[in-house]
Give the backbone structure.
Amino acid sequence: MASILLDDIALTQHLVSISGGDWHTADENGSIYLGGSAIVVGVTHVVFTLNFTGTSIALYGHVLSDDFPTNDTVNGVVIDTWTSTTISLRQDNTIDLWYQSPILPDTNDTHTITFDDFPTMLIDYAVVSAGSETILTGQTLLVDNTDPAIAYQGDWRTSTAIVAAANATTRTPVGGSIYETIDGKASAVFQFSGTAIDKTFCIETEALIGTSVAIYGVSTTQEGVVMDYDLDGTVFKSRQYNASIIDPNFLWFEKDDLDPNNHTLIMSFSPKSTANNFTLDFITYKPSFTTLADKPEFSPQSILKQGALKSQRTLNNIIVGSVVGPCLIALLLFTLWLWRKRRASSGAPMLKGDISFAELV
């Protein structure tokens, strides 16, 4: 399984048509939007059409029309040639899931979805579920914090709290939750097959320029470097942040010049960290495989076990050394004392340079 992230800029490439209004970019609330901006579609009674390739699509945002009744229904949604279905919308200022399509046939065909007679909508981002036939080249894949592709060690806690930002706008975490930890021994491992993006392609198509791998979370109000990021054996530090505000989409780490290969990313607290507080919402990366059939199988949990085993072996060596070392010295001294005693009892003269046991201890 794989999820394709379509941020608002990328989503505009999938906006086929719109009637009853237009669309424009909203960025007045800054970091509350994924990627720093969202799109506003329509005025009132708008009809707009999107296309996508995958087995389902989910749209995140909220209703903007002030005159739209709370929890009211809209005329419907039409996918391809399916029968129109009615959905319920609520009018509030929380960015959340407002539409989830049914599961569609697993083909590489492009689906068309039309939203008919809708109020003014703010769309922050969309998540498309990729099927076995979906072409993933050039896409940004989303890995939620709950995805088994990420293995955790230590004390991590789940938070479903809604994050507040400017102008009374709030947002739910991507996927509905974040993981957070204050455990100085906590760590996480993510393995992926990723590559650097084609920036020329992105600029020409006005698509969002992403990175090969990126980690997002909610920035802490504590100051200090939080995590170390070991990517294929090279350690990087967390980006600095403004501790006076909470950023709900803070970019902790990114790397965009990777080879098209398999990579291992290990997140762990820095030994010199002054703020043991870290949150993980989601990870994005650019895949180096074309379809899910080409996706390598990873076992991030085995990486954690190897690390734990290595640490345990080191600890055992220290313990064994601290116990066996003194025992060997005591045995050596006892052997020397026994030899000296037998030598003395036999009447043998003391050799030049001999020392007594008392001098040894």
About this structure: The longest helix spans residues 300-345.
